[in-house]
Design brief:
The complex is a heterodimer of chains A (270) and B (404).
Chain A: H1 3-13, E1 18-24, H2 33-42, E2 48-51, H3 62-73, H4 78-91, E3 97-101, H5 103-109, H6 111-121, E4 125-128, H7 139-145, E5 149-150, E6 153-154, H8 160-169, E7 174-177, H9 190-203, E8 208-211, H10 217-226, E9 229-232, H11 234-242, H12 247-266
Helix pairs in contact in A: 2-4, 2-12, 3-11, 4-6, 5-6, 9-10, 10-12, 11-12
Chain B: H1 5-9, E1 17-18, E2 21-25, H2 28-45, H3 48-62, E3 68-70, H4 72-78, E4 82-87, H5 97-110, E5 115-120, H6 124-136, E6 139-145, H7 146-151, H8 153-161, E7 165-169, H9 176-189, E8 194-196, H10 207-215, H11 217-229, E9 236-240, H12 245-251, E10 261-267, H13 280-283, E11 285-289, E12 291-296, H14 321-328, E13 333-337, H15 339-353, H16 359-373, E14 380-385, H17 393-399
Parallel strand pairs in B: 4-14, 5-6, 5-8, 6-7, 9-10, 9-14, 10-13
Antiparallel strand pairs in B: 1-2, 2-12, 3-4, 11-12
Helix pairs in contact in B: 3-5, 5-6, 5-10, 6-8, 10-12, 11-12, 15-16
Chain lengths: 270, 404
């Protein structure tokens, strides 16, 4: 059983929902990322999605675009991101880490080399935004052979046939994108999400995490009620941007943001 | 490799691949739209009503066929092969871009979409899109890098006059690639009612197929005209390559004619060895950007590199996937000329033939002159004059230190 599967099973057993924060590696500075990851775990994170910065993040809104620019200004490379995970693992062997990013940096490293390095660093899952399962036939076996979970996106526009097909290619969890748009934009329609996630649950046994539009305890609870976990990104990255000058203040601010979400999710536990 | 009709018919394959290139590398939200577009296009492609409409617009709105013109004086001065010019600059809106926008806007109408978005570099595709949207009464949004808005202000104003909203893109390098990023972002958010008219022969499948099919009218006409006027097939075709839409349109109908050599001319900028250029086929490597796998300019970590070219329309780090395939199989040659050589080409054609090419096109002109000089007098070189140079007057004047 993968670390991701183990954590999600345990949570389910307790009737709890997963809190999955996203930050971009190297933002605001590569030296801070590992520290911030520990901060997220201390504040209640169950799984961490760690963004690999890319020069052309087409699926992201301005908040994460700017995070990528800050990280790249300091030369944050995929190699460095993997080194960050390795350092994180020295103190935390329990919290799953999912790398989230775009295909090109992974291809540039070489898919097999990347898969090996990811396992060596202690990465648990890979979510490649611009890699649909249709194009993953060379990469997917490399991940499977190394027990790395391949996490794919589902969207409001995904048809039933594709939900089934994508779920078959996925392991760990599937990531439901709550609205049509880029990260950090739009307003989440909880009723719509509820009915779509319920429908996805009918089509796959995998846990469903929901991301895009979750910005506070109230939205976290509302989405947590109808899914297996919530993914929180832009609001955290925006907090990083606003507190980038003061690392201690930044950690407090992240913690202050995540804590109430944790509590709100746990208050759902039956 | 000798290409046959059967081989060409099989490409792109069902997943949109040309050999190792192409594909559909997009976020999940867009996937269903791309499948629908592919399905509808395949249906309409053979629909007589759709084709008749397309042909009618090309004839009466665009003004096709565009002439194939024998550049007699340029030929004499060059002293080698005959140089012929395929006059896409004479199309309505002044470039080849309109062939494709007519086709895609027609698709948008058939699909019932009321809102159109487009990216643009030099502004030619933006103008062509704004033009057809004005005519069809479609809402039009054009994304353009802030850098290009500055250097192509004339085209920006043309688009506004035509009723389009021009979005100045401030992210990244503020050029064509960033305009395409923002167009994709808009599309994800408005996928239900919006048709994305991609201007170049790149992007996720089926776009490279659509754009190639719509632009192939250039090569089909050239083939007929050359046989009629020069009495033979061309010996060499020369076209500039940014994303590569005018080049693929010219090359495609000749791919099985083994005797026809093809030269795609990339932007060498300040010189390939300076790193300041926009020539992925000459100096890049395969990667994934904007929905397709293709040759890219990138650093060792897979980050997309900043490009440089005097011409905004070639200032792009990628290229259409079919060109990547044609390069690998050796069917087409990809070469580059520098900014300075292109400017010389611009001046030469202007002064010797009275035809002012776009700076993009000037790259093809510059290379073709060098090439023709090495060839016998009975050989025929056809340059695709993809666009006219009016839009570049300010850039040229600035280089000359003159205020217009």
């Amino acid at each position: 059983m993968s670390r991701i599967e183990g954590v999600l099973k345990a949570l389910k057993g307790q009737g709890r929902k997963a809190l999955i924060p996203y930050i971009t590696a190297g933002d605001p500075h590569p030296d801070l990322t590992v520290d911030l990851m520990h901060t997220l775990v201390d504040a209640g994170a169950d799984i961490i999605e760690l963004g690999v910065p890319f020069s052309d993040p087409m699926a992201d809104g301005p908040v994460i675009q700017l995070a990528c620019e800050r990280a790249l200004k300091h030369g944050t490379s995929l190699r460095q991101v993997l080194a960050m995970v390795k350092t994180f693992r020295e103190k935390d062997d329990a919290t799953p880490v999912v790398l989230m990013g775009y295909l090109n940096p992974m291809e540039a490293m070489g898919q097999e080399k990347f898969a090996d390095a990811a396992v060596d660093a202690g990465v648990d899952g890979i979510l490649t935004v611009d890699l649909p399962p249709e194009e993953a036939d060379e990469v997917a076996p490399l991940f499977t052979a190394r027990n790395l979970d391949a996490i794919f996106l589902l969207a409001p526009t995904t048809t039933d046939d594709r939900i089934r097909a994508i779920s078959e290619h996925s392991s760990g969890y599937v990531y439901y994108v709550s609205f049509k748009g880029v990260t950090g934009a739009g307003k989440i329609d909880v009723d719509e999400v509820a009915s779509k996630v319920a429908h996805i649950h009918e089509l796959t046994a995998l846990p469903v995490g929901v991301g895009f539009g979750i910005r506070d305890a109230a939205t976290a609870a509302a989405v947590g009620r109808v899914s297996d976990g919530v993914i929180v990104g832009s609001v955290l990255v925006d907090t990083i941007a606003r507190n980038q000058a003061d690392p201690e203040q930044l950690k407090r601010a992240l913690s202050d943001l995540l804590h109430p979400m944790r509590e709100a999710l746990d208050s759902l536990a039956s | 490799m000798k290409l046959t009709e059967e081989m060409l018919k099989a490409l792109p394959d069902a997943r949109g691949h040309f050999g190792a290139y192409g594909g559909r590398f997009v976020s999940e939200t867009l996937f269903d739209s791309l499948l629908t577009l592919e399905r509808e296009y395949k249906r309409l492609k053979d629909d007589p009503e759709f084709q008749a409409e397309f042909d009618k617009d090309l004839a009466h709105y665009v003004g096709r066929p565009s002439p194939l013109y024998f550049a007699e004086r340029l030929t004499r001065e060059t002293g080698g092969a005959q140089i012929w010019l395929k006059r896409e600059d004479l199309n309505h809106t002044g470039a080849h871009k309109v062939n494709n926008t007519i086709g895609q806007a027609l698709l948008a109408s058939f699909l019932g979409k009321k809102r159109v978005i487009a990216e643009t570099g030099a502004g030619q595709h933006g103008v062509a899109t704004a033009t057809v949207c004005a005519r069809l009464g479609l809402e039009c949004h054009v994304f353009m890098g802030a850098e290009d808005v500055k250097r192509q202000s004339l085209n920006v104003y043309r688009m506004k006059l035509l009723g389009a909203e021009v979005h100045s893109v401030q992210s990244g390098t503020r050029t064509l690639k960033d305009a395409m990023n923002d167009a994709m972002r808009d599309w994800v958010a408005n996928v239900d009612d919006t048709f994305y008219i991609i201007g170049t022969v790149a992007g996720p499948h089926p776009y490279p197929l659509l754009v190639r099919d719509f632009q192939s009218v250039i090569g089909r006409e050239t083939r007929e005209q050359c046989l009629a006027q020069a009495g033979k097939l061309p010996d060499a075709l020369v076209a500039c390559v940014g994303g590569g839409s005018n080049a693929i349109g010219m090359f495609y109908p000749f791919l099985t004619d083994e005797s026809v050599e093809m030269y795609g001319v990339e932007a060498g900028g300040l010189g390939i060895d300076t790193g300041k250029h926009a020539a992925p086929l000459s100096a890049g490597r395969p990667g994934v950007l904007h929905g397709n796998r293709t040759y890219l300019m990138e650093d060792e970590n897979g980050q997309i590199a900043a490009t440089h070219s005097v011409s905004a329309g070639l200032d792009y780090p990628g290229v259409g996937p079919e060109h990547s395939w044609l390069k690998d199989i050796g069917r087409a040659h990809y070469v580059s000329v520098t900014d300075d050589e292109a400017l010389d080409g611009f001046r030469k054609l202007t002064r010797v033939e009275g035809i002012m090419p776009a700076l993009e096109t000037a790259h093809a002109v510059a290379y073709a002159i060098k090439l023709a000089a090495t060839m016998d007098k009975d050989k025929v070189v056809v340059i695709n004059i993809s666009g006219r140079g009016d839009k570049d007057i300010h850039t040229i004047a600035q280089l000359d230190g003159i205020e217009v």
